[in-house]
Amino acid sequence: MFFFAIAIALFGVNAGRVRCDPVSDALSAIPTATISDGKIVGTTTNIAGPTGLIAVNKFLGIPFASPPTDSARFTPPKPPVKWSSKDTKEFKPACIQVFAPVANRTFVEEVFNNPPPAAGENEDCLYLNVFAPKKKWDSSKPPYPVMYWMYGGGWKFGASSLQLYDGAHFAALEDIIIVTVNYRTNAFGLPQAPTIKNVTERNLALLDQRAGLAWVQSNIDQFGGDKSRVTIFGESAGSVATDILVTSYPKGSKPPFSSAIMESGSYAYLPLANCNNSDFTIWNGLVDALGCTNTNPDAAFACVKGKPAADIKNAQELYPAITFGFACDNYTFVSDPRSRMEVGNVAQVPVLMGSNTQDGSFYANFYANYSFDIYWGGTFGFATPAIVAQYQKVKDAYPIGSEGRVDLVTQLTQIATDWNFHCPALLNAATSSKYIDTYRYLFNASFPNTRINDPTRWPEKYQGAYHSSEIQIVFNTAPSAGATPEEQKLSETMRKAWAAFARNPNQAPITGWTKSGSDGLDAMMFGKGSPGDSGMVKDSNKCDVWKQFIIDLHA
Ligand SMILES: *[C@@H]1O[C@H](CO)[C@@H](O)[C@H](O)[C@H]1NC(C)=O
Ligand SMILES: *[C@@H]1O[C@H](CO)[C@@H](O)[C@H](O)[C@H]1NC(C)=O
Ligand SMILES: *[C@@H]1O[C@H](CO)[C@@H](O)[C@H](O)[C@H]1NC(C)=O
Ligand SMILES: *[C@@H]1O[C@H](CO)[C@@H](O)[C@H](O)[C@H]1NC(C)=O
Ligand SMILES: *[C@@H]1O[C@H](CO)[C@@H](O)[C@H](O)[C@H]1NC(C)=O
Ligand SMILES: *[C@@H]1O[C@H](CO)[C@@H](O)[C@H](O)[C@H]1NC(C)=O
């Protein structure tokens, strides 16, 4: 009750209509909250705790921006129209997703989009979800740390509503508020088009993520959240998004987050070119695929903008080379993340980062029937002498016949793991540790009910601790059928470590988890010895094979 008195005082004018409603609160069977845009009515769920069921409040599908549709397509997120009372009991649709190439769509969805978002997908998608403890708190001092989750999906797909990202266990068992946000991806989120002159406005995906973070700063106290303790976190593209935020807030700035967790993805040390604000090849490919070819780029843009969303989706799935990157504006996306890291000119917040020991297995699998050269060509190409030299260096460093490389797939799995995930995290941690508290982990566990059951497309022996497989361990969202005691133990350990870091990132998330040193070797191994156990290791690695290549390629 007191909490709502505060809410009304804060939002007196906007909440005028709310005042007439019967006031309820977080403790009600039908929880409500009054946020800056109006009142929302949520729902409740129960999680099994050590001594019985623990209730959690869920507010699902809260608009944090107006629908980016029609004339608002390809434009930055704008505040939603205020409402008096809105039901937020069910998830809203995902943003439009692209699972290219079409030939591999079933497989990609099976691994990363399973089960798919219940509410489907729609261009009207700028919604977020809040999972909060169902408890009474002192409204003068909202107590709960907040964790803000950005999904993966290679900037092509993803949905905050996946069951995988259900925040109820964190809310029930750790007194943490989980916020999961939708953001636009593919052409809808990264329209690198010449017509958009302000290059920041080509990075709509990043602006959406920032709008969600601004929403947290404005509203999370209404759920008991402490806005001074916000941990941004994500996996894969969501982890890259986290690093993009860390590297784009310079030292001395005031970021809307206080710590960051990166699961299998980094920006600063990725051996791929950052951006080219005047390269419109990809956009023009989309223009042509949609039959919008025109010598006047503004007319072409208007044509694309006028197409049905389904056509824009289909064009990208049919022509998988249409893959959008970022514009460098040095605001949402810096052109020189590594250089900034190396002088400590990044957000001064503690970071926790890591990778899975077979993060590359999913990617290697696509080349199972091909060859090392085809993998290399498809990944890096052979365009420059430096890339050709690196090709030879990698070929020599990862021969089949040793260190667990028994065939092409196991060889490519190690290579894909190292360049895309393992070494970027190791090198990032090594540099980061010079300026900010840095904790690194490795995840090396696999359980019967987290494996992909599709032996034709992906034999289990090749999966290992595959990309994204740690998420359900962190969130406790693996299927309960077939869960093993070791799996439950590892889940407890990881969830508690993530929560401890969100509560206080200035101390070890697990007793004995030492900070990264400047060699980057120290890491907490989840699944050390046996899948349920954890402990520190010195990470033996081949990152020297990649380091100079990364540095030369990536400012
Ligand atoms: C991907 O698509 C290609 C082309 O149709 C096909 O040969 C291959 O089996 C697919 N791989 C998977 C893992 O789905
Ligand atoms: C560019 O766009 C961003 C995001 O909408 C905005 O904050 C900024 O003010 C714009 N810059 C200019 C020069 O208009
Ligand atoms: C950026 O793209 C343009 C157009 O394709 C090209 O002319 C230019 O060389 C590229 N710049 C860099 C640094 O690659
Ligand atoms: C971003 O900053 C880098 C140096 O830090 C500079 O080289 C680059 O031109 C800047 N880009 C823009 C778009 O301002
Ligand atoms: C991961 O665990 C497997 C056993 O499941 C073990 O063979 C392998 O050496 C471990 N990998 C690392 C990097 O410790
Ligand atoms: C490799 O080829 C076999 C036989 O055509 C096929 O069954 C299998 O799906 C292919 N594997 C992949 C990963 O594409």
Describe this structure in words.
This is Alpha/beta-hydrolase. It comes from Lindgomyces ingoldianus. With 555 residues, this protein is of the alpha/beta class. 31% of the residues lie in helices and 16% in strands. It has 17 helices and 14 strands. The chain has an eleven-stranded mixed beta sheet, with helices on both faces. Strands 1-2-5 form a three-stranded mixed beta sheet. Strand 1 and strand 2 form a beta hairpin. The longest helix has 25 residues, at 408-432. The radius of gyration is 23 Å and the shape is globular. The N and C termini lie far apart (53 Å). Mean pLDDT is 94; it is low at 1-24. One 2-acetamido-2-deoxy-beta-D-glucopyranose binds next to loops.
Shape annotation = globular
- Poorly predicted regions are 1-24
Helix content: 25-40%
**Spatial strand arrangement across the major sheet:** 3-4-6-8-7-9-10-11-12-13-14
> Over the alpha carbons, how many angstroms does the gyration radius reach?
23 Å
